[in-house]
Amino acid sequence: MSRLVIGNRSSGAQAHRMVWFAREGDVVVLPSYPTGEFLDLLRRLAALPAGEPRIAVPPAGRQGAESLDDGRLAVPGFVGELRKLAGGRGVDRLLAVRHDAAVLRLAREAGLDGPRGVPAFLAQHGGGLVGDLAVFRALASGNAVPVPEGRVCTGPREAEEFVWPLLAGGRAALVRPARPALPAGAADELIVPVGGPPGADADTTIAVADRETLGEYLAKSWERYSRDGAFPVVVEHYTYDGERLRIEFLVEAGAVTVLYHGRLRTTPIRNGLVIPPPPTADAAKAPDLGAFVAHATRVMEVVRALGYRGYAGLDAVVGPDGDVLFRTLHGGVTDTTHLAVVARYAIGEDCPPARVLISRDRVPWPSFATAQALLDRSGLAFDPDTRTGVLLTGDDLSGSAGPADGPGGGSPVPSGQFLAVGRDHAHAGELEAGALAALDRTSSSAV
Fold it and tell me: Counting CB atoms within 10 angstroms of each CB, which of 17, 138, 163, 375 has the fewest?
């Protein structure tokens, strides 16, 4: 009853957070070794014995030690060692960030070819279908789940016909590949009228003065958007100021279970998640969170009926009048799924609503150990008796040559993620501010 956990298709920092899903007996494949202090925290909260979980790291590939590219997962020597390790530990199930072709091949070669190894839907490459933005818009629209004004396009002319009226009316359009290239992630582009501001949800912003320029740009960019014509492209009206919401589920054969729902903070940049969402300043424009959860659950029931099993999430934006529009379906583990596991370990099954959580990414610190010592000395560290305080939940690594538990392993880049756990939104905010101030002072003084 052990699992092969693979941190593929994500950066080193996000990949390391996959260890939160591991249990005793599991084997976790990562792009580099986590620091020993990070693993010690996991073991303490999850009540794991020393040496668990077992970490396996393949030789660095063309992209170095920052990500698990397909080549690293296919190195013959590593695959052979992984098969022996998995067989010795009775590994018979798979959990990966994305169940792509490279991961499915590795699972087979590691001996996970039995009926329990990989859910049948994912074994037939259904994961790409669930993660397809055009498919999501079809599923949502067909089940009366609101999505932004938009269109699924198969050519640049069709996209131009939708985008130009938006620009002419002073609005902006988001161009979204249905299947963005991985592991880089989303390649969304925001197209705005001249003088239009950039948006937090796009990688790049393009200003267009007239329709001719728009048509030329879309035609020039279409191969990149559509991955050489293999997939359609979604264009949709872009909402600047609305709250961004996320909800995550565990989809199983008999039911879908809500893990949490929260607000993604995107101003001035995307950095953090608040669980549950804080109250909206203007009550008249507050989103109906009950309807939000109900609509999201309806989508997940459809996904479950398709045969998908595993973690999945939905992102939505709140419109000017408080209407919630669903934008993205995530099939697999997201960059925030692990927070549900951390909360269960640290706080219990009643979180939320017993506690408010605020996560913060890319927090500067000299090292994981120094940051933890500082939280301990300042009285900000998480207290299991009160179930409040600040937990360090991720360490952003550059990749190390050897196990962190052994000599020479785990060289950290000076930043990471923490989780502020408060009695209410105000208390969680105070803990976040205190931790940021303390870590900033320590980081600034470190040479």
Answer: 138
Q: For residue 358, give the H/E element and its range.
A: strand 356-364
Burial 176-194 (b: 16+ CB within 10 A, else e): bbbbbeebeeebbbbbbbe
Helices 36-46 and 338-346: crossing angle in degrees, nearest 10, is 60
User: What is the pLDDT at residue 11?
Assistant: 64
Paired tokens of 334: 């997201």
pLDDT tens for residues 30-68?
998 888 999 999 999 999 999 999 999 999 877 777 788
pTM for the predicted model, two decimal places? 0.91
And the tokens for 431? Answer: 């803990």
Indicate the residue type of 46: A
Q: How far apart are CA 68 and CA 103, in angstroms?
A: 10
Q: Would you state the structure tokens that stand for residue 295, as one six-digit string?
A: 């609509």
Q: Which segments of 347-392 does DSSP mark as H helices, in order?
A: 368-378
Cα–Cα distances (Å) from 273 to 87, 119, 174, 330, 428, in that order, read: 38, 30, 23, 16, 12
| Pair 295, 326: CB distance under 8 Å | yes
Rounded CA-CA distance 308/129 in Å is: 10
Length in residues, the chain: 447
End-to-end alpha carbon distance in the chain: 47
Q: Which residues, including other chains, have CB under 8 Å from residue 433's CB and lie 6 or more apart?
A: none
